[in-house]
Amino acid sequence: MITEQKDLTGKVAFVTGGNSGLGLATVKELAKRNAKVYLAARTMDKAKSALAKITDSPENVELIVLQLDSLNSIKKAAQEFIDKEKQLDILVLNAGIMACPKNITEQGFETQVGVNHFGHFSLTALLMDLIKATPNSRVVTVSSVARHQGKNLKPTDPNQLDKYNAWQSYGNSKLANYIFATGLDRKFKAAGINAKSVCAHPGLTNSGLQEKAVAMGGAGKNANLWVVLAQKIGMSSYEGAKPQIMGATALNIKGEEIFGPKYGVRGKAIKLRKFRKISDNKVNNLWQISETQTGLKIL
Fold first, then answer.
1. Which of 105, 106, 95 is nearest to 50 (CA)?
2. Pick the catalytic residue: 38, 164, 170, 178?
3. Mean of the pLDDT values across residues 272-282?
4. Alpha-carbon span 41 to 55, nearest angstrom
5. Secondary structure of residue 35 in the 3-state scheme
6. Which of 51, 132, 229, 261 could bridge to 267 as Cys pair (CB 3.0-4.6 Å)?
């Protein structure tokens, strides 16, 4: 039985992709529990539109612009947060894109790996001093069941632009998310830092992500099938967000754990033990690639 912290008074949270889907559901729930929540969105217009949809404790929500495909934007958002806050109790790395056409970020990363992993790695690195300074800080990284089809990033070619496949790249980015969450918790422990890193995956959720993938045109011939499945049997965004909300608020966790639906794609969220052994070599490989690509270091 997992016990969640119901009153987050005095806590400060930062949620990426907080303007829609799982992110907005997470912002709403944390604000409802009295946390001060920074809702990060790509534009201020999107952030304001999302705020208008928050009816329970909107006064607990702050807005911040964050574009994870731009290191300049990440640095600006991180500095804005650091200038305003002295603590960071909950960092939810929720934002993500799925099965988009081949493209590159401002730094030349393949977009899915760039946004889903390198962007979040960079943000975490830039906020690390606040994480270390906050007792019992929590970092929640949102992955996906697509991690099972993912392959480890290659040191010589982490972006795989010449052999681009939209779904493979998405799987690679989601596996990187899981390895990152695992590795971050190990590094916290090794450094004696009073923080925890956990992972979450939503299962099949009608959050709008499938529709975006189809609209972008990179999801392939089976894209519409996933849209129909999400609409017909997918969970609501709130149900899909339960694993990451639980990851952010569960008491007495050990770290290096994953929260997800009971039956893989649907059902009550439960704590799952390590389901896939991640070696230190894989963690170190991802860290070396990420630090080299971003020019930033974490611990």
1. 95
2. 170
3. 74
4. 18
5. coil
6. 261
Give the confidence band of 224 by pLDDT, cuts at 50, 70, 90.
low
Q: Are 135 and 150 in contact (CB under 8 A)?
A: no
> What CATH class is the domain 12-294?
alpha beta
Annotated catalytic residue 170: yes
CB 90 within 8 A of CB 18: no
Task: Give yes or no for a contact between 113 and 180, defined as CB atoms under 8 angstroms apart.
Answer: no
Domain boundaries, the chain: 12-294
At residue 282, does pLDDT exceed 90?
yes
pLDDT-derived band of residue 153, with 50, 70 and 90 as boundaries? very high
pLDDT value at 216 more than 70: no
Sheet containing 61-65: order of strands: 61-65, 36-41, 12-15, 90-93, 137-142, 195-200, 258-261, 269-272
Q: What are phi and psi of 271, to 5 degrees?
A: -85, 130
CA torsion 238→24→180→84, rounded to 10°? -140
- One DSSP character per residue, 51-112 reads HTT--SSGGGEEEEE--TT-HHHHHHHHHHHHHH-S---EEEE-----SPPS-B-TTS-BHH
156: left (phi over 0), alpha (psi -120 to 50) or beta: alpha
Q: Is the dihedral of CA 160, 161, 167, 170 positive or negative?
A: positive
Q: Which pTM value belongs to this model?
A: 0.92
As a whole number of angstroms, the distance between CA 263 and CA 61 comes to 33
